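Hey, I'm writing a tutorial for new members on how sequence and structure tokens pair up, and I'd like a real worked example in the thread rather than a made-up one. If someone can provide the structure for the chain below, I'll link this post from the tutorial.
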Amino acid sequence: MELHPIIAQRWSPRAFDPEATVDASIVRLLMEAARWAPSHGNTQPARFIVGYRGDETFQRIYGTLRPGNQSWAGRASVLVVGARVTGDERGPIPNTEYGLGLAVQNLVLQAVHLGLVTHQMGGFGKEAVAEAFGLPEDVVPVVVVAIGYLGDVNDLPEDLQARERRPRERRPLNEIVFTGTWGKGWQ
């Protein structure tokens, strides 16, 4: 048995094709994938703000990014803010971070399936997003996802070119999966 190719192929490049566009029908499919993610008690806490390169929403999202992310994210075709709603008519919603994470992972894997690349970012101003989009108090922005088609690594600043070419690495299973007691590596 082997890891599913969609999981194995997923990575987070910073090199986006600045000329490519992602059709609205494809973005709609990505949002559908996110919508169908599991959530605690089917509370569906994930919310998204979508901006296409060249529109005002994209520019407002881009403006909240930290400078390091701005150095490359403007080339993406789409920027999406992922936020979590912390309550509904029944009261506080548990595990909202988990629900948003599952929704974003669905979006990302659907993107890989469609030949797109994505890069998830935590380097943005959460308060700036809340202000720029008039978010209610019970909505917390968590991530910005850049979406598009793979571009040329040589178009990135030199420091990012090296990071882009590094091999993908993950900790070995015995460092992240335990049995019996914490820290006892699972085999």
